[in-house]
């Protein structure tokens, strides 16, 4: 099953793969407003390229539509979720190990930076 999922994901457009990797780090469920936090702040390193690609809003959401069409991601209202926990696990495994900590750090920093203050 894992090998089949790896094959399915790696056959997707590079941008869709990048968005799935980001989503796998954020969690099993993510809403649109949280995804919008990452549009300008996270460089998504695309597989099979040597340069980083920064996804813009339309790119992120059109990439998610591809993943939805492929049955990898579900959308209910403004919530996106992986169709199965194995899909999230495989998407996460496609992040190079040497980049995982940095991506988690970026995600945490962005969420903290955008957290409403408790006045």
In short:
The chain is α+β, with helices and mostly antiparallel strands and 119 residues long. It is built from six helices and five strands. The strands form two sheets. It has a three-stranded antiparallel beta sheet with strand order 1-5-4. The protein has a two-stranded antiparallel ribbon with strand order 2-3.
Could you explain how this protein is built, in words?
This protein has helices at residues 2-10, 14-26, 32-37, 57-69, 85-93, 97-113, and strands spanning 29-31, 43-45, 52-54, 73-76, 79-82. By secondary structure, the protein is α+β, with helices and mostly antiparallel strands. A hairpin with a 6-residue loop joins β2 and β3. It has one domain. Helices cover 56% and strands 14% of the residues. InterPro entries: Hybrid_Histidine_Kinase (IPR053159).
Estimated share of beta-strand residues: 5-15%
Write down the Rg.
14 Å
| Major sheet details | 3 strands, antiparallel
Main structural class: alpha+beta
Domain module count: 1
Helix amount, in percent? 55-70%
List segments where confidence is low: pLDDT < 50 over at least 5 consecutive residues.
45-55
Strand order of the largest sheet: 1-5-4
Task: Give me the count of strands.
Answer: 5
InterPro entries: Hybrid_Histidine_Kinase
